[in-house]
Amino acid sequence: MPTPTGPHDGEPTAARPATPEQREADRLARLADDAEATAERMSRHASGLYGRFAGGQPLLYGHHSYKSAVRDRRRADSATRRAVDAAERAKQARTRARGAQAVADLAAVEAGRTRDWQRSDFRPGDVVTVRDFRRDMAVTSTYRVKRANPKTLTLDGGGGGWDDPKRTYDRILSRTRDGVTVTDPGQLDT
């Protein structure tokens, strides 16, 4: 395996702490980089195989070169199909890497807290960003707080009350009040 270089070298930085989620995101980013390089190399190779036909030379049936021309065209077509498949795999790898980076970013936000969110941190009208679904999925939503309950927040779902979601405090990523966004509830204690 080549020595990793570039922005995904796996070294922790101030912006990207060395968490398991970040290491996984860096690993997937390196795999995506490798897949993209392989797809590009395969595409160049496939394009080179069509060199015999670059001037628009038709296949001359009955000519002594016909068999080798057909063979070369099939070889080039097959290489092109493989290059297209490799490009699709590279695209999927990049999508997985982006998803893993988003999960790592959310994990970093949650890990950077000095204390947990609690009921007294919220009041009706605050805008909160919450993590939806599982911890390994980087899906977030933004809501306006309707009510702070002992264990959950009741959020305004926009449907007049019948669809108001509730989220536990451990799923809150940030709170915005009067234009000031807070991601660490410990900042409120000072």
From TrEMBL:
<dbReference type="InterPro" id="IPR021944">
    <property type="entry name" value="DUF3560"/>
</dbReference>
<feature type="region of interest" description="Disordered">
    <location>
        <begin position="1"/>
        <end position="27"/>
    </location>
</feature>
<protein>
    <recommendedName>
        <fullName>DUF3560 domain-containing protein</fullName>
    </recommendedName>
</protein>
<dbReference type="Pfam" id="PF12083">
    <property type="entry name" value="DUF3560"/>
</dbReference>
